[in-house]
């Protein structure tokens, strides 16, 4: 019975969430506030992540109404309810950046980056590096260290690395091989191909043939042959060795700790 009651509350909160969003879109902030306050009260027995999402809506209402300090206060409350709430941390970073509160902004951004990857598979480094609200910090070493993805400037090689970062090894290989003539660091490219092939082989060894279709392969041995091909290509390119791929992996792994 208790489970059914909680499920009913969750359904009601979800329905009210839609109404809140409609009121915000219509700039009917009085209605939006009233509905959100009611929903916050209703969400008291709910999990922290759900309470945090509702409180986060109040932060949006206050920001859209021009009350930036009050919006920050509601973001703090949302984070108190759900400490690993990446979107709330990112918004906190943006608002503090607007107010030129550097340390608060950078700490919030660091949390958004950490929890974005661990909780939501979202990487906030790229949008943060282009966000106008962070313009005052663009040349700051602390900010640069936070948003550095370790990705290369070459667009074709960048796409390969980004696919790896998204755990899309076959897309990384196909994209790189298709645009190989545009890549200026072939040692890094083949290092990425080898790494991607190793990911595929490990996955197939763990799950058997079930994921072959996902990779467009007919057999596990085909994946092993592909891996050996890349290993041989790398061995033939030892004179071209660069640290581009090694730095990318080190940067990515440091974000996971």
TrEMBL record:
For the keyword Coiled coil, the answer is: yes
Instruction: State if Coiled coil is listed as a keyword.
Output: yes
Coiled coil (residue ranges): 92-119
Which SMART domains does the record cross-reference, listed alphabetically? TPR
UniProt entry keywords in alphabetical sequence: Coiled coil
Q: Which residues form the signal peptide?
A: none
Designated name of the protein:
Tetratricopeptide repeat protein
Tell me the lineage of the source organism.
Bacteria, Pseudomonadati, Spirochaetota, Spirochaetia, Leptospirales
């Amino acid at each position: 019975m208790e489970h059914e009651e909680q499920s009913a509350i969750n359904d009601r909160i979800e329905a009210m969430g839609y109404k809140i969003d409609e009121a915000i879109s219509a700039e009917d902030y009085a209605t939006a506030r009233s509905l959100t306050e009611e929903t916050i009260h209703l969400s008291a027995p709910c999990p922290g992540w759900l309470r945090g999402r509702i409180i986060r809506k109040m932060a949006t209402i206050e920001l859209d109404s021009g009350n930036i300090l009050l919006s920050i206060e509601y973001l703090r409350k949302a984070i108190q309810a759900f400490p690993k709430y990446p979107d709330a941390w990112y918004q906190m970073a943006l608002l503090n950046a607007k107010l030129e509160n550097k340390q608060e902004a950078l700490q919030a951004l660091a949390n958004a980056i950490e929890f974005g990857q661990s909780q939501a598979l979202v990487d906030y480094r790229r949008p943060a590096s282009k966000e106008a609200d962070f313009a005052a910090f663009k040349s700051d070493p602390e900010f640069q260290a936070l948003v550095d993805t370790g990705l290369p400037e070459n667009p074709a090689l960048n796409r390969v690395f980004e696919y790896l970062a998204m755990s899309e090894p076959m897309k990384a290989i196909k994209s790189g091989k298709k645009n190989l003539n545009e890549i200026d660091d072939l040692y890094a490219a083949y290092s990425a191909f080898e790494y991607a092939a190793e990911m595929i082989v490990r996955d197939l060894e763990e799950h058997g043939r079930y994921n072959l279709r996902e990779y467009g392969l007919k057999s596990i041995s085909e994946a092993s042959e592909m891996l050996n091909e890349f290993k041989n290509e790398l061995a033939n390119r030892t004179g071209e060795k660069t640290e581009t791929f090694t730095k990318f992996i080190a940067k990515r792994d440091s974000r996971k700790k």
